[in-house]
Amino acid sequence: MEIVIDNGSYLIKAGLCGNDQPDVLKRSKGINYGVIEDWDYMTEKWLSIIEKDLLKEAKSAKVLTIHPYNTPNVVFDKMTEIFFESL
Q1: pLDDT of res. 58
Q2: In which band, very low, low, confident or very high, does the pLDDT at 77 lie, cut at 50, 70 and 90?
Q3: Which of 68, 54, 62, 53 lies closest to 83, judged by CA?
Q4: Beta pairing class for 11-16 and 2-7
Q5: What is the pLDDT of residue 80?
Q6: Cα four-point dihedral sign 48, 53, 54, 55
Q7: If both were cysteines, with which of 24, 35, 65, 69 could 53 make a disulfide (CB 3.0 to 4.6 Å apart)?
Q8: What is the spatial distance between Cα 34 and Cα 55, in angstroms, rounded to a whole number?
Q9: Phi, psi of 79 (to 5 degrees)
Q10: Which one, of 33, 39, 22, lies nearest residue 79 by Cα?
Q11: CA proximity to 7, closest of 20, 19, 22, 17
Q12: pLDDT tens digits for range 8-64
């Protein structure tokens, strides 16, 4: 099972790969102009979306995240750390 997450500045859109529309829309307040500012908040949101809204057994799911083209590499590094160690 694959999960797609778009971390928008206003809404986080998430769903299962192959669906025409997002399954989950959640308000995002941890992102400003595409840059994550509140990592604890985003970690909680991702965990809630993956485990409560999309899948009950998310450990085996593949996750694709969508980012603006100018996202700094430090953001990718931090997200990778969170997804592998916390979620």
Answers
A1: 54
A2: confident
A3: 62
A4: antiparallel
A5: 81
A6: positive
A7: 24
A8: 26
A9: -65, -40
A10: 39
A11: 22
A12: 778 888 888 888 888 888 888 878 777 788 889 888 888 888 888 877 655 667 777
Q: What are φ and ψ of residue 25, in 5° steps?
A: -125, 120
Tokens linked to 29: 């307040």
User: Where do the domains of the chain lie, and which CATH numbers do they carry?
Assistant: 2-85 (3.30.420.40)
pLDDT for 59 equals: 60
Contact status, residue 3 vs residue 54, Cβ threshold 8 Å: yes
- 75 closest CA partner among 37, 30, 26: 37
Tokens of 54: 């999309």
CA dihedral 32, 35, 41, 43 (to 10 degrees): 150
Residues 68 and 54: their CA atoms lie apart, in Å, by: 24
Q: Report helix, strand or coil for 36.
A: strand
